[in-house]
């Protein structure tokens, strides 16, 4: 094309085009003479758009089929049966979580079947888990994550701060899920986020407002509001603070299920105080409550209400977005004894497998196992410390056993656990 002859032959359709403006032949290379006219570019664009629509429709069908398959695999009773293999007791918590996960998938299915917003949208059922340290909160969620076919990410809420303060912004929870989904935004937008240590971001002053800066507590709760409700969250891929030049990733949290959990130390006292206030009576006919008559922790924790959480320091707006309250009770000696031996990944089974690799048969007396359970109760750490107590007892044995390849039997007694006596080792 030159100034004397404005006619150009399109390299694609071979049509001669009079190039009055640059938009008549948007693509033109004067060196090679290659050109594409406006009509061809429009046709190519429509072809790509049509192909994209077909691909999206196919992906939509495949995703809906995958959700249907998963729904058949994770019916509430099936999820509970799976969790029973790893977690002892906590039946109520297993039921609550099983139903919450099943409803989450049904909500996703409903969203695929009714993509248009007709006002009949099913709201998210986010969950708040309460229970003492070492009762199985994190273990429940970690085993649940293995069973599910959707991305699952755990974030420590105590490390979060509101924007502008040193620490991690609340968006880090979504970023962790994004990486758990292998950077697939579509899968990420239908995943599950678990915020651990949620009680650590309660207001310092309980239910009362504070006039001082509270960057790691109430401010974080305020920052989490939109995310829990369902909003587009923007974060940087590398985790640096947001600024105008940093490329960002956008994820819609509308279909992300949030589960928050914590020990909520002291909430039983708040519940007990509320119950006493409700049952308060005075005079000669009033019942005198002795020390043994006071309700136990397990009885109290199952009576947790949103009002108790507000008194603990969780803001009302957050509580409204966490409609399901799931509570776990303390583990007694019998429960800890079962945890030591019954689950698939029981601590005793783990050490027996380790010793088998050295041709050693490891046995624990029942009294030894009871001694381990009692020590864990004394430490007030629940099931979390069971493996550590066994490790302390087994350390010298595991150090000396590899000196020989002989087949032997090692027996751990209660004396080994309580007094540090040496285990019985015999050749077999």
Automatic annotation (TrEMBL):
Gene3D superfamilies: 1.10.8.60, P-loop containing nucleotide triphosphate hydrolases
MF terms (GO), sorted A to Z: ATP binding; ATP hydrolysis activity; ATP-dependent protein folding chaperone; peptidase activity; unfolded protein binding
Record carries keyword tRNA-binding: no
GO cellular component, one term: HslUV protease complex
Swiss-Prot/TrEMBL GO biological process terms: cell division; proteolysis involved in protein catabolic process
Organism expressing this protein natively: Anaerovibrio lipolyticus
Lineage, uppermost ranks: Bacteria, Bacillati, Bacillota, Negativicutes, Selenomonadales
NCBIfam families for the chain: clpX (TIGR00382), PRK05342.1 (NF003745)
Assigned keywords, A-Z: ATP-binding, Chaperone, Hydrolase, Nucleotide-binding, Protease, Zinc
Domain named AAA+ ATPase: residues: 123-347
Xref: Pfam families: AAA_2 (PF07724), ClpB_D2-small (PF10431)
Identification of the protein by name: ATP-dependent protease
InterPro entries (alphabetical): AAA+_ATPase, ATP-dep_Clp_protease_ClpX, ATPase_AAA_core, Clp_ATPase_C, Clp_protease_ATP-bd_su_ClpX, P-loop_NTPase
Domain Clp ATPase C-terminal: 331-425
